[in-house]
Amino acid sequence: MKIDSVEFFYAAMPVVTLDADGSQDALLVRVTSGDHVGWGECEASPLTSIAAFVTPRSHGVCQPVADSVLGERIDSPADIARIAALVERNSMDLLQAAHTFSGIEIALWDLLGHRFGEPVWKLLGYERSHPKVPYASMLFGATPQETLDHVRAATIAGFRAVKVGWGGFGEEGVARDADHLVAAREALGPDGLLLVDAGQIWVTDVEAAAARIPALAAANATWLEEPFLPHAYGAHAALAARSQGVGIAGGEGAHTEHMATNLIDYGDVSFVQIDTGRIGGIGPAKAVADYAADRGVTYVNHTFTTHLALSASLQPYAGLADHRICEYPVEPSALARDITRDHLALDDNGEIAAPDAPGLGLEVALDRLGPYLHTVEITVDGTTLYASGNPAGRAVTVDA
Amino acid sequence: MKIDSVEFFYAAMPVVTLDADGSQDALLVRVTSGDHVGWGECEASPLTSIAAFVTPRSHGVCQPVADSVLGERIDSPADIARIAALVERNSMDLLQAAHTFSGIEIALWDLLGHRFGEPVWKLLGYERSHPKVPYASMLFGATPQETLDHVRAATIAGFRAVKVGWGGFGEEGVARDADHLVAAREALGPDGLLLVDAGQIWVTDVEAAAARIPALAAANATWLEEPFLPHAYGAHAALAARSQGVGIAGGEGAHTEHMATNLIDYGDVSFVQIDTGRIGGIGPAKAVADYAADRGVTYVNHTFTTHLALSASLQPYAGLADHRICEYPVEPSALARDITRDHLALDDNGEIAAPDAPGLGLEVALDRLGPYLHTVEITVDGTTLYASGNPAGRAVTVDA
């Protein structure tokens, strides 16, 4: 069967703030092949990602993503890999292509899962979906007391692991950061897993990052995430060499499999965090999971958005029993909650798992999205290349 | 003074083919600050790059490029670096941002050069612009005879160096590729510099690349360019270790300074090729040139488009006398020729240099571009975010 259509749904909260909260908008993707449908999500700028799908061709290896996807055969996981290679080749010089294709690739896995009545993790070759320990992902409070209150709320909700990040961490004094870490550890108790996200705040400054290591070690932080720019491998490795047992984590910015494996090989990270909505989808994420497992590096999902994205991010390492930690967006926007009808709730052990259900195992609640949806129209020389909801639009239907 | 406006001009040939010929379209950028104007060019998908400039904000670090540029102070090279850091931070999760900003950054250098009456290379700290040996950049012919004819034409035109690439090289048999290399060397004569571009054709397959090394060494090729995906550093290093004196070259895909320096550190390339229209502009390219020079790696520009892009690509290493090789698009499209009124012609020694004139030293012939220009309109919820040539459009004017 062939890929008949790729549709984008651009949803956003009424007000999008400057907070580092990636759940404020979403780009959903629906792929149709005959009677089969799959859903995916790009963790990316919606308008820019749509543009990369429909843009006029610049030359042979700067083609729109659509030209490597629409009309292609989709009967097996091998077809997904084949289409991914086409996109990588034909859109070599189109930087945004990886972000656009990520949502499409996820939707193709969901589609095949529904068609074959299998969870995606089974299509990936796993025999079961092992439970994960979700960590509540949240921003630092404005004061240590606020950080303490937020973390305590998460432990009361049943979380044994918490990640705090952003909110000015690393930007002011070392003592100020230490106060927040003490507060987080106090709220979490001695046994909870404490994870800290620096959000690239030190750019490439190893000394600035190293200055926070004593406080991180004293708080028994399991990892320090994204201390530097994602390509600054040398800085990551230099910090890892003096991190006093605090693991260095990173990888969410990876938009190719190799960017992530390079961070393992050259950045000496202990935890590699992959967003399937950016790296090109579930296939390259699974390759990174295999690579990490072979090298004693712990694979972790990166998810700050919807439960559709969460399920997609769990699939690549669902079968890796020893890779236990899982990011869980604990304070998502109303939009991010409303996008799926069902959710991945914590079980009695306070754990979650990729669903044992066809595809990604979640139903998209398109009927609830109306208030959030934006219409987009892109025209070149007066010709409409893309129009949301327009069945004549190129993004919606193609003669296969 | 402040940045008052950023305008985009999307030009393309009437027919854009699937050839790997990047001169088939262009995205020009004009930046205005008070009475001062500068021009730059993105080597990127035009529509997608425009979308990244005007897209609605997704969150604090996925902001449109415009929000880090419009209204910013621009009085010195330090301001350019400051704005670049803003874009890197505020558009961290917007993949296309680097390609969009590249043209803007170049235009800011051109603008400052005109304002101060200095060539860009002087603003970069160089005392003079050293001549470079341009190589004629061309595609392999369909037959060895065609390759021979093309290379011969370049030598007759005065070129002492030629690069051949793409056109099926690496996709069929080793013997077929060897025949083309013999033909190219025969046309070039024993003393000419022969460079070969594989265009990532072997993805990550080191053995497939290594199988071509004997023929490349026999043809005395100076370099083999882009054998693999740009992030596949391990494959680059493995090939470099067995390349029989043929240097490995790469870097044109770098969209950050670190991507390029990583290719030096971990990929063991002997030549690093930077496109200022992709890496974020002239500033990061200069940083890579300094880094390469310190490590005995030869810096080379990557340019397959206009002479505006060529001048921009020469600036970062204009003052490095020992870095002599320069890519020169010898068969550009009519569009690429028409974009500038003047051109960087070969001197009596068959060499070229970054112009000793203010800014980039070339005049954009906007009056000649009419037949090539495309109009673009982007609307979200019926509101126009971008419209070519519309002075009310956000991309054109801002209250500073």
Question: Main attributes?
Answer:
homodimer; alpha/beta; 33% helix; disordered C terminus
Written account of the structure:
- Two copies of one chain form a homodimer.
- The first copy, chain A, is α/β, with parallel strands linked by helices.
- Helices cover 33% and strands 19% of the residues of chain A.
- Chain A contains 13 helices and 14 strands.
- The first copy, chain A, has helices at 46-54, 77-90, 97-116, 120-123, 144-156, 174-188, 206-210, 213-218, 233-240, 257-267, 282-294, 307-314, 334-338, and strands at residues 5-12, 25-33, 36-42, 133-139, 161-165, 193-197, 221-225, 247-250, 271-274, 298-301, 325-329, 373-374, 376-380, 383-387.
- An eight-stranded parallel β-sheet of chain A has the order 10-9-8-7-6-5-4-11.
- In chain A, a hairpin with a 2-residue loop joins strand 2 and strand 3 (36-42).
- In chain A, helix 1 (46-54) crosses helix 3 (97-116).
- Chain A is globular.
- The first copy, chain A, starts with a strand and ends in a 13-residue tail after the last strand.
- Chains A and B meet through helix 1, helix 2, helix 10 and strand 13 of A and helix 1, helix 3, helix 11 and strand 13 of B.
- Strand 13 (376-380) of chain A pairs antiparallel with strand 13 (376-380) of chain B.
